[in-house]
Design goal:
single chain; mainly alpha; three-stranded antiparallel sheet; 17 helices; 53% helix; 5% strand; globular; binds acetyl coenzyme *A; transferase
Length: 401
């Protein structure tokens, strides 16, 4: 629905478009999305093909630099990342300052911001070399911070990566390696993780990406812009939905598995409850990522021999919603977050790390969007408003109020 108002402000005509539902903020050559037809493409390549045939690092390169890398380019990119994979030991003191109960998204956002202090050069991106170095640095260090955020919660020692492994396998090892235990490779787990990261890698001008671009438009630097993006992603209406979905499914299970009761709650306008993982600002037909993830959830749980009642509840809710007039009329379909949490859970990732995993996947997209914004010399983002407050009032001293 178009809900744009054009009003006369004090300095000319201003368009009000709550939630920017119909406002384009930029031109972009990164991600194509057709919400009516359920099409998603990165740099022209379909999400279905990329999820099936590419790996996450290739997709990161594609999103950031515009083309799929050849073997040499990919190897050089990976080597540059490996060479930057250390994180200053002082960063551990910052992590130490957080209680174990801290939400890992807050920890991650803070640590990403703190990285600037240890990499002051990351703010200067005037030359293409400087920009490339910043990009490689964050792609290298961010997974270490992700692993640290989780290990701290689990009381595990903080570790670094293993340069002999692929990008995603190394992330998995950093997260799950136990002291005095050999790390065991599991292809099913790594492939599932790789696929999930690809599916989350970019989604044009969503809330967190717009945040990265707008913060970056003040030339605040890549790491600071990313830190803001992480905070934007945290909310339950955005990336935080994957955690909220799982908590909702667990609550339904604990309550006896009555999906109809929760469907009724979601439709009840006097109740603020929403069916988490349903609906999308842009997809009004289906979310192509949800289709891929649903299939992946079946495969991964099957391969790992896990029989999860939560998956059955999710499928039940989806079936009911697809036949329900309320959901059909409002074009509310499962989104990317509906099934992703079930896979994360089967991989042994704690629930409050789900949105962190989303951030890990979205990192290349944020970087690509930030780089595009800087290379296009976009002006500082600065929306206008219509002032609706008090007119001029003379000041009254505190003793006369
Ligand atoms: N459950 C029940 N009703 C819903 C849901 C839901 N999940 N989502 C939307 N609706 C209803 C609204 O109440 C509204 O009904 P009305 O027209 O009778 O008032 C109508 O559908 C339109 O909803 P809006 O909130 O106006 O749609 P908007 O485009 O602003 O919001 C959003 C999209 C935020 C994704 C919303 O669908 C939602 O809250 N979903 C649940 C949270 C979620 O899964 N977020 C993840 C999104 S994907 C991502 O960020 C990766």
């Amino acid at each position: 629905a178009i809900d744009i108002k054009t009003l006369r402000g004090t300095s000319g005509i201003v368009t009000i478009d709550p939630g920017y539902k119909n406002t384009g903020s930029c031109e972009s050559a990164i991600t194509f999305l057709d919400g009516e037809k359920g099409i998603l493409r990165y740099r022209g390549y379909s999400i279905e093909e990329l999820a099936e045939k590419a790996d996450f690092l290739e997709v990161a390169y594609l999103l950031i630099f515009g083309e799929l890398p050849n073997k040499e380019q990919l190897a050089a990119f990976h080597l540059d990342i490996k060479n930057e994979s250390h994180v200053d030991e002082e960063m551990k003191k910052i992590l130490d300052g957080f209680p174990k109960s801290a939400h890992p998204m807050g920890v991650l956002s803070s640590l990403t911001s703190a990285l600037v202090a240890f990499n002051p050069g990351s703010v200067d991106v005037a030359s293409s070399d400087a920009m490339y170095n910043s990009i490689v640095r964050i792609l290298a260090k961010f997974p270490v911070l992700v692993a640290w955020a989780m290990r701290k919660k689990m009381g595990l020692p903080l570790d670094y990566g293993d340069d002999s492994l692929g990008y995603v396998e190394n992330i998995h090892k950093m997260m799950f390696k136990r002291p005095n235990q050999e790390y065991k490779r599991n292809r099913v787990v790594i492939d599932a993780l790789d696929k999930l990261l690809i599916l989350h890698a970019d989604h044009e001008q969503n809330c967190s990406t717009s945040t990265v671009r707008i913060v970056g438009s003040s030339h605040a630097g890549l790491f600071a812009s990313l830190s803001a993006g992480i905070s934007a992603l945290w909310g339950p209406l955005h990336g935080g939905a994957n955690q909220a979905v799982l908590e909702m499914l667990e609550a339904i299970e604990a309550d006896g598995g009555d999906t109809k009761k929760y469907m009724a709650k979601a439709k009840d306008k006097s109740d603020s409850f929403r069916l988490m993982g349903f609906g999308h600002r842009v997809y009004k037909n289906f979310d192509p990522r949800a289709k891929i993830i649903k299939k992946a959830a079946d495969e991964v749980l099957g391969d790992l021999g896990i029989n999860d009642p939560i998956l059955d509840i999710a499928k039940g809710l989806e079936k009911e919603a697809l036949e329900d007039e309320y959901f059909v009329k409002r074009k509310l379909y499962p989104n990317v977050d509906f099934y992703s949490g079930i896979i994360y859970r089967s991989l042994g990732i704690p629930t409050d790390m789900f949105t962190v995993m989303f951030a890990l996947g979205r990192l290349p997209g944020w970087i690509a969007q930030w780089r595009e914004m800087r290379l296009r010399n976009e002006p500082i983002g600065r929306p206008r408003q219509i002032y609706v407050g008090e007119n001029y009032r003379p000041f009254v001293g505190v003793d006369k109020r």
